[in-house]
Amino acid sequence: MAETVGTSRTPSAPRSGRGKKTTSKAESSAAQPRGITVERIFTTPGVHPYDEVTWEKRDVVMTNWRDGSVNFEQRGVEFPDFWSVNATNIVTSKYFRGAVGSPQRESSLRQLIDRVVSVYRRAGVENGYFASEEDAEIFEHELTWMLLHQVFSFNSPVWFNVGTSSPQQVSACFILSVDDTMESILNWYREEGLIFKGGSGAGLNLSRIRSSKELLSSGGTASGPVSFMRGADASAGTIKSGGATRRAAKMVVLDVDHPDIVEFVETKAKEEEKIRVLRDAGFDMDLGGADITSVQYQNANNSVRVSDEFMRAVEAGGEFGLRARLTGEVIDKVDARWLFRTIAQAAWACGDPGIQYDDTINDWHTCPESGRITASNPCSEYMHLDNSSCNLASLNLLKFLKDDGTFDVERFEKAVELIITAMDISICFADFPTEPIAQTTRRFRQLGIGYANLGALLMATGHAYDSDGGRALAASITSLMTAASYKRSAELAGVVGPYEGYERNASAHQRVMRKHAAANDDVRTFVASAPIHKRATEVWQDCLEIGARNGWRNSQASVLAPTGTIGLMMDCDTTGIEPDLALVKFKKLVGGGSMQIVNQTVPRALARLGYQVEQIEAIVEYVAEHGHVVDAPGLKPEHYEVFDCAMGERAIAPMGHVRMMAAVQPFLSGAISKTVNMPEEATVEDIEKIYMEGWKLGLKALAIYRDNCKVGQPLSASKKAKPTAEPQVEARPVRKRLPKKRPSQTVSFTVGGAEGYLTAGSYPDDGLGEIFVKLGKQGSTLAGVMDAFSMSISVGLQYGIPLEFYVSKFSNLRFEPAGMTDDPDIRIATSVLDYLFRRLALDYLPYEKRAQLGIFSAEERRNQVAENYGADPAEVDMDALRSTVDAQPAPEKGASPAPVEVGSSTELLELRLGKAADAPLCMTCGTKMRPAGSCYVCEGCGSTSGCS
């Protein structure tokens, strides 16, 4: 076994009396074992897992692909030969501890795994988890084998902290609380900051804070929760900028009966309008842009906590009461449908707020006697008591698919048992950011086992994501996972005792276990899911029987997290519960460079569907060229749905995502991190339907995102500048032709990757008289259209139509190509015409007319900033007011669809779709991120915008 690098901390003694070897009353018999036995599933006796693989040395050099600067470099790192370059890069840069270049720096995957697993084994021995030293050794080897072979992964804080000199924080998800006092509010800011500093996220419910419609004891009017959100948002933005591991992530929840609910719902939608205005004025309002910090509420996800009472009032069209926070009396009444429409309208405009279904959440609550569930973590998968935390781990489902296409039920069940054991052991030695969180977590021992690669598993087994068979398979796997987790939790309770809060909540906990088992009985099975469901049914019965005797060690066991960074660590094609993003993916190569490949699940699925080798090769070649399967040679149309993805030619319908969530929700202790993506043309009514169906189908939380609804990503619409008053037109217009010889200038430009040239001719005595636009190849339709357009504009100018009229009409038009430009004065354009007329305005219109249109040069914006803030213009940072991104020409039809400039699978997909995808640029390396649950993950460096 390789020697561990770094300082391993000896696990501290269990606090609050937990973790000691205790025995419940129901099993005080002398025959009861004093620890669990661990059987070998993956490993071979006498052979260490490290000796079964081939190791190789690699150089990790990570660059910002946009400018070539080196973000991270470590040479000679050691990894198994089957680990991808991407997984190697991310683990080396994110999880290896020690200063780069120092002897203490970890340089092998062996050292990383040993650093973590050795602490888990030692803590398990010290706290009485194992029946013998041999069981402890098998536990260590099995855990090592699964991590080495990417069968599962702990959440990121485990890799950051365990076995180092840092506090042993193992949880990625936190829920805080805030009361209606200034001391509590200020403490909220402090606690949230500490959690962000540690690289984790937090959520809380602000509904205890009095509304702006209520009075203070001093006689004044309360500020209301929305006002206090500003301070917390600014704090999160500051810590995000200085954080060493990841961006801050947070969730803010408000109950639907709070008197300030409308203000809360509209906060981010109104800020989005402000972003549009500032963007149109030339400020850098892209995500991570220099000027985005001037708007508020951008660092949190917002959710409305709705009740069954409210949803029934929406159905009936009745009134709904908004209640005072201290007395509970109704102080205002609103039309329920109007309020529901307001929520959907805001979500349509900017993606926020999401919905959390309060009564459903608390109906599945195992510990109601200890308090209600009022909030969630930032990604909405962890829901439990206030001031608590949850550590996560996720299984790679594709690792359990056997060569014959069946799911390895036995190995999956045993893997879950081992992982749950390890996760519970971690609470014995874990540190926490605040004492209230430490106390609650040690008393209730919340765990969050989950999985990734569901989308890949469904495709590989020939199931459409949006199909009854696919949902049955997902439901059966999820049911078995949670059943095996709670069964092992009950077994652990018989060895080291149930969680401290169990006795008070025993009746409720047992009721929820019965609800899970009853939901399992309602699953409609198919051929592929029947064996899994059968075993899940047996395990649930064992779980209920053992739990009735022993209680349970953990108040909750399972969630479905985004699995962002750890999904890349496990080389998963899909994250969490998500379907595949696209059929063609971006892959990095050993020694540098990259290439596009068809996802390996595609040929596996085709083989499963019965296609021959020659047919598979032809279909894969077609997919590589077109990015989809429509009209692929030899592929039956009835099989198209198997290859449907989140984006692309055959995108899964929004309700397909909701139905998948509903299929697995009854088998999760917590909830699901997932955003239901909707097309740009989706209506407010469509969003209302999604939110209503989520409630009826029994979801705990639901969030939507409408394509292109945010300015921080590519725009779907923008406010048009108000046209200036038109001059009086002569009754008989006279054309003023240009002389044979006239001054002109030519400007080369790129917009969203499309390259072109603008030539503008002027009258000798001043004034624009003609334009010529070169865009596209000579003889192409696009070139012909632009020639005709240039001619019509030129004739109009010569007949006296003012340039400012054209600018007001054509600026802000939106169509592809759109996006970043190479013009220092115009950083983002919503179309080629938007760019051309903004450029013409800057070159030919006086300042006064441009000011009316909101068009300024970078120099003018600098002077405005200097004047507004009383600064010297020379001191204003010009780089913060302009962008010099080098856009690249779009690929010609028939050319390679994946040029070397592509930096991620999302950017590759953008080339396929011919439109920009709604994903931010990574704050660390500049690569376009891709969705991971309700968060985003960077394929370049592993950074995430949320949990795991």
From TrEMBL:
GO BP annotations, alphabetical order: DNA biosynthetic process
Domain Ribonucleotide reductase class II vitamin B12-dependent N-terminal: start-end pairs: 60-150
Entry EC no(s): 1.17.4.1
Keywords from the named record: Cobalamin, Cobalt, Disulfide bond, DNA synthesis, Nucleotide-binding, Oxidoreductase
Record-annotated Ribonucleotide reductase large subunit C-terminal domain positions: 171-705
Catalytic function, reaction form: a 2'-deoxyribonucleoside 5'-diphosphate + [thioredoxin]-disulfide + H2O = a ribonucleoside 5'-diphosphate + [thioredoxin]-dithiol
InterPro entries: RdRp_reductase_class-2, RNR_2_N, RNR_lg_C, RNR_NrdJ/NrdZ, TSCPD_dom
GO molecular function: cobalamin binding; cobalt ion binding; nucleotide binding; ribonucleoside-diphosphate reductase activity, thioredoxin disulfide as acceptor
Region (Disordered) location: 1-36
Domain TSCPD: 739-843
Function field: Catalyzes the reduction of ribonucleotides to deoxyribonucleotides. May function to provide a pool of deoxyribonucleotide precursors for DNA repair during oxygen limitation and/or for immediate growth after restoration of oxygen.
Family label: Belongs to the ribonucleoside diphosphate reductase class-2 family.
Annotated protein name in UniProt: Vitamin B12-dependent ribonucleotide reductase
